[in-house]
Amino acid sequence: MSEYSLDTIRHSAAHLMAAAVKQLFPSARFDIGPATENGFYYDFDLERRLTPEDLKAIEKAMKKMIGRKIPFERFEPTREEAERMLREDGQTFKLERLADVPEGAVISFYRSGDFVDLCRGPHVDHAGRIGAVKLLSVAGSYFRGDEKNPMLQRIYGTAFATEEELQEYLRRMEEAQKRDHRRLGQELGLFCFSENVGPGLVLWQPKGAFIRNLIETYWREQHYRNGYDLLYTPHIGQSVLWETSGHLSFYKDGMYSPMQIDEKDYFVKPMNCPFHIEIYQSKLRSYRELPLRWAELGTVYRYEKSGVLHGLLRVRGFTQDDAHIICTPEQIESEIAEVLRFSLSIWKDFGFKEIKAYLATRPEKAVGDPARWAQALSSLENAVRKCGLECEVDEGGGAFYGPKIDLKIKDAIGREWQTTTIQFDFNLPERFDMSYIGEDGKKHQPYMVHRALFGSLERFFGILIEQYAGAFPLWLAPEQARILPITERQHECARKQLAELREAGFRVELDDRPASLGAKIKDARHDRIPYLLVVGAQEAENGGFAVRSRREGELGVMTPAQLMEKMKTEVDNKIC
Predict the structure, then answer these.
(1) CB 481 within 8 A of CB 493
(2) Catalytic center residues
(3) pLDDT of residue 307
(4) Using CA of residue 202, residue 207, residue 208, residue 210, what is the dihedral sign?
């Protein structure tokens, strides 16, 4: 095990990569090269586009420096000396980064052989400590993330303390590529995008829409069973609503330009919460009505830069599975515990078992009574403890308007995804002057909690595709079974079986093409059909079929009644 943290190893690898690039491209200009969750990157301005062969050459040069154990030497020039060094080397991007360093702050550089870089560090003491490295890809990146600035080339790589750890990571990466929801979504005909419609706006194809409808139906049923009422709200609202909520002050860059209706500005909604508050404000409320649990599948629109759009995981129009709990201070702890229990039951149904909680506490700049913050944090902590969840505390990581719990799930190949959020809000109740009449006959301000289970249906759907590798469990599969007659002589029997299974409510198709059985099976497997029902002469004579389960393999000959009983059990138990 290395004495250095993985972040330090990867930051050092990024610096070493820049040194290698400088060797091969002496006129290169550099921006920044941080460590990331899964590796590192560095942004460069080069005289030409990089090729795969260039990446190999850069990686080879890095490994030579690792073998030679090139030292990382820190030195701290004056601002004037730093500016002179960067200007003489033509490093205009680094000069801009240097300008960001506050006056009086320490300015540090690191030297690796002939390469010198403006960098805060820390680094390993020499390159031999880096371990194993691999360069992965090249992408475009705007300087400072601004589309108005020059386009740079970003090289992505990863580093680990040992070669074994690196190879295990690369194996997981290969598996992740096989599960990429963008490729599978197109291959299985689930969703698509269109330049004519616009980037980040999803078009749901029939199969994808069918699965989405199943998820939405399940979501609604579960919410009704767990004491929620469902709401519907408009897609647009007058500017006064967003002025009151504060979105026009704090979130305007993420909102689309207003439209004029009756000489007033209207905005498409980036959030659902102000609409739910307006419903609350539509009448005087009593403590006897609380808690209110209101949920909505509300479609919202947020401006995301084109460079960060990523399939279903980062889009501009999406449907939040939003809910707001409005309650008294006395009710808050039990409500939070119930939300957490509800969330865990949902994740279990979709086959996720490894779940971790992250508790974000009060930041330095926060609104709301400190006593409320303390009670809210206590409620969150107690709820996590009661559920027996592993929890990590993010000190000061809460929003200015309240603490929160984030739940992260691990998928089938060990990746962690942020999903459920339970967020206290002391800001909007004050801005909208929310109140209820308490038992004492006086007005009191309620507690308000924002809660999303999936986050958004689009992102959740993308996660599910990758979790299942496109092979949806029986209860979610748009086509649950496919009947495959071997010859035309079995068509009449197959049609009767089809009608029987469909009459019982199962989603079954018949492949009666004049193709070989092998070709039909190959196509069905490509489509990830859970059950293949082969009908030959003997099966037709007995009114059954030879059953092949995607999950269990060959199951032998079964009658329609036997198969339906098995499938019903699998659906009812949501076996994934």
Answers:
(1) no
(2) 273, 302, 320, 322, 324, 404, 450
(3) 79
(4) positive
Segment 464-492 shows an average pLDDT of 96
User: Which H or E run contains 484?
Assistant: strand 481-485
6-174 classified as CATH 3.40.50.1010 = no
- What is the token pair recorded at 84? 């002179």
* Contact yes or no for 473/498 (Cβ under 8 A): no
Instruction: Identify which of 56, 53, 73 has the alpha carbon closest to the alpha carbon of residue 17.
Output: 56
Task: Provide the token pair at 54.
Answer: 């260039």
The boundaries of every CATH 3.30.930.10 domain in the chain are: 187-233+272-468
- List C-alpha distances in Å: 572 to 32, 190, 476: 53, 24, 11
CATH placement of domain 187-233+272-468: 3.30.930.10
Q: What is the residue whose two structure tokens read 């599910």?
A: 464
Contact 16, 127 (CB under 8 A): yes
Question: CATH number for the 481-572 domain, one of 1.10.510.10, 3.40.50.800, 3.20.20.80, 2.70.70.10?
Answer: 3.40.50.800
Query: What angle is formed at CA 314 by the lines to CA 149 and CA 219, rounded to 5 degrees?
Result: 160
State the distance between the two ends of the chain, measured CA to CA, in whole angstroms: 37
Residue type present at position 514: P
Q: How many CB atoms within 10 Å of residue 492? A: 11
Taking the C-alpha atoms of residue 476 and residue 480, their distance in angstroms, rounded to an integer, is 8
Query: What whole-number distance in Å separates Cα of residue 446 and Cα of residue 379?
Result: 15
Where do the CATH 3.40.50.800 domains begin and end in the chain?
481-572
pTM: 0.87
Cα 486 from Cα 337, distance rounded (Å) = 55
Q: Token pair of 471, please?
A: 């092979």
Task: Report residue 304 as tokens.
Answer: 């995301």
Amino acid at 271: M
pLDDT digits (tens, 9 = 90+) for 241-286: 999 999 998 888 899 999 999 999 999 999 999 999 999 999 999 9
